[in-house]
Write a structure and sequence with these properties.
Largest sheet: 2 strands, parallel
Distance between the termini: 23 Å
Shape: flat
Radius of gyration: 13 Å
Number of helices: 3
Strand content: 15-25%
Structural class: alpha+beta
Length: 67
């Protein structure tokens, strides 16, 4: 029941988007967030987009807990 997000670059050759889709399909509360201009390191290659997606995930998961 734990929410899970896989963050993957569209050009990642180690953890391909297809592999992440397969992993997410095996977990009922998992989803994949794909970054179209990244390889293996979307946090470094698209930091603004990555941080925004991470904030959305945390907000949706935690809500206003701790605020």
């Amino acid at each position: 029941d734990m929410p899970i997000r896989f963050f993957v670059g569209a050009d990642d050759r180690a953890n391909t988007p297809a592999l992440m889709d397969k992993a997410a399909s095996a977990l009922p509360s998992a989803a994949v967030v794909k970054f179209s201009h990244s390889g293996h390191s979307p946090f470094a290659e698209e930091p603004e987009a990555f941080n925004l997606e991470l904030r959305h995930f945390l907000r949706d998961t935690l809500g206003n807990a701790g605020h």
